[in-house]
């Protein structure tokens, strides 16, 4: 259930990224505004994904979404740690 709640916000963020990417290149302020809206949605998804990961860290869809959120929000330390855990699990 936690993963699904996170997906609601995650999917909104993905759609908002599409909106940002559709902004013409000469409208950088508008692009940044739309991109920030996407990041807000990803931030809302994060606690749901992290709690779901604590409960069941083996769900591949969850791992992929959490990895993407960490990367998108420039949470490099958490991203790197998650990648290490994924790599250790796959060995």
Q: Can you offer a commentary on this structure?
A:
- The chain is mainly α and 91 residues long.
- The protein is built from four helices and no strands.
- α2 (28-55) runs antiparallel to α3 (60-72) and α3 (60-72) packs antiparallel against α4 (76-89).
- It is elongated, with a radius of gyration of 14 Å.
- 22% of the residues are buried.
The SSE order reads HHHH
Find the structural class using helix and strand composition.
Answer: mainly alpha
The counted number of beta strands is 0
Instruction: Detail the poorly predicted runs.
Output: none
Report strand %. Answer: under 5%
Helix content: over 70%
Q: Determine the number of helices (DSSP H or I, runs of at least 4 residues).
A: 4
Instruction: Kindly report the average pLDDT value.
Output: 95
Envelope shape: elongated
Rg value: 14 Å
Largest sheet: none
List the helices and strands and how they pair.
Layout: H1 2-21, H2 28-55, H3 60-72, H4 76-89
Helix pairs in contact: 1-2, 2-3, 3-4
């Amino acid at each position: 259930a936690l993963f699904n709640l996170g997906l609601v916000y995650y999917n909104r963020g993905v759609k908002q990224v599409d909106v940002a990417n559709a902004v013409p290149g000469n409208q950088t302020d508008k692009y940044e505004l739309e991109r920030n809206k996407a990041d807000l949605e990803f931030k809302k998804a994060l606690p749901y994904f992290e709690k779901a990961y604590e409960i069941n860290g083996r769900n591949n869809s969850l791992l992929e979404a959490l990895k993407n959120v960490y990367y998108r929000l420039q949470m490099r330390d958490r991203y790197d740690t998650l990648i290490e855990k994924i790599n250790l699990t796959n060995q």
